Amino acid sequence: MTAAGAPAFDAGFRATLAALIAWRRDVRRFRPDPVPEEVLRACLQLACLSPSVGNSQPWRFVRVGDPARRAAVIANFSACNRQAAEAYPDERAAAYRRLKLEGLREAPVHLAVLCDEATQAGHGLGRATMPEMLRYSVVTAIHTFWLAARAHGLGVGWVSILDPAPLVASLSVPPAWRLIAYLCVGLPQEEHTDPELARHDWQPRLAADRLLLER
Predict the structure, then answer these.
(1) Does pTM top 0.85 for this prediction?
(2) Residue limits of the Nitroreductase domain (predicted)?
(3) How many CB atoms lie within 10 A of CB 78?
């Protein structure tokens, strides 16, 4: 600990953190084992410590357990997935159809993560010129949850091949809540250091030095 009481993060911690980030994967293949409630709650608690514009904390987590609502989400994905495949030329469409892009049927936990765009928390600070900062704040909470879940041995899969409007309607939430992510959570069937889309030749990782511009 430092003199002010803040923790000192040493080289060992930094190496562990780097390993955690490197091993965070978008998981699509889940074991059926239930997720311990205390573990899920701990991960959500850490997610709620994420930074947010004006301290607005606009994230809203909805655990979807009702079979009819889950079936609606799966049907939503299936329709959107067909449309997405049809938008690619033949060779790329065939490669797309070979990919496993969700674990909706297998994952024991479904979490819809939404942004409350009508929140009064934060009093509008920091978003007069960039109202999208509310949604970006929710994304930080999602990433924090993802890392926390990985640290507990859980896998998380972000399903984005969905039509948000009917999905949100099926959840019976306030009209000002906007879908940011639909997450599948559970114990992964397998572990990989490389992203599935890189492993199956869809898109390799880009080198970090290609993504940094100097001005």
Answers:
(1) yes
(2) 21-186
(3) 13
- Provide the phi-psi class of 18: left if phi over 0, else alpha when psi is between -120 and 50, else beta: alpha
Written out in words, the top-level CATH class of the domain with range 29-202 is alpha beta
Q: What SS3 state is found at 67?
A: helix
- Give Cβ neighbours of residue 16 (< 8 Å, ≥ 6 apart): none
Per-residue pLDDT of the chain (215 residues; tens, 9 = 90+): 566 788 899 999 999 999 999 999 999 999 999 999 999 999 999 999 999 999 999 999 999 999 999 999 999 999 999 999 999 999 999 999 999 999 999 999 999 999 999 999 999 999 999 999 999 999 999 999 999 999 999 999 999 999 999 999 999 999 999 999 999 999 999 998 899 999 999 999 999 999 999 99
